[in-house]
Amino acid sequence: MSRPELWIGTSFKMTKTRVQAVAYARRLLAEVGAGVPGVTAFVIPPATALAEVSAVLGAGPVLTGVQNAHWEDEGAWTGELSVPQAADAGARIVEIGHSERRAHFGETDATVRRKVRAALRHGLTPLVCCGESAEVLARGGSVDHVLGQVESALGGLPSGPGGLEEVLVAYEPIWAIGEHGREPRPEEVAAVHGALAAEWGDRVRAVLYGGSVTTGNAADLLRVPGVGGLFVGRSAWEIEGYLDLLATGRRHADATG
């Protein structure tokens, strides 16, 4: 399979009204509407703004996604959003298994696995999140923990189109994400990404890093072996920050291409 471009994207989490999300999308379209050479850009707005953000960005090179979706196509699942509904609103990526979903909403390895297959069944790209706690890191179990999560999510999927080739993996150590996350040292990222690249790098679309990514450390993180892109939170919530990160990605792609 051909090697993917660098991926750089952001999830807005539970921020931004429809007006704010659309304003962000319009600015992004104006700045990089033709795409960023060497980089695949994506934004994942709140579900309330998904259709409008998708309409602004259209079918162009900047992809939109949804932050969660159910594994069933329809039914009596009050408050849930199905993959077909997300696709109907313009999503091309489904974020699955974020640690906040696991910690606060009962997401498990089993439900992650089912959601991955639902996304693939409808032709969307699963973005599978994985990551370990500070306690797991302290006892030296990061690699085994993360590889176990990914194996549970992806094990048994066929290679090639419609299977693993469509999947994105995002390593987001729990100790590094969020407002109080600790900025990782490159060697901490390298240990897990090296293992992910060895096990999955030639089979999935890309393996991204997320967790305390800033405009100041993005270039260093992209140089870590096995990192195929960045999945960014609050540093990209203002459009200037995201544009800066895309520019960093382009420079990296130019230097390594």
Automatic annotation (TrEMBL):
Q: Specify whether Cytoplasm is a keyword of the entry.
A: yes
GO terms (BP aspect): gluconeogenesis; glyceraldehyde-3-phosphate biosynthetic process; glycerol catabolic process; glycolytic process
- First-listed, main subcellular location of the protein, grouped into a coarse class: cytoplasm
What EC number(s) are associated with this protein in UniProt?
5.3.1.1
Q: Which UniProt keywords apply?
A: Cytoplasm, Gluconeogenesis, Glycolysis, Isomerase
Q: How does it assemble?
A: Homodimer.
- Name of protein: Triosephosphate isomerase
The protein's organism comes out as Nocardiopsis eucommiae
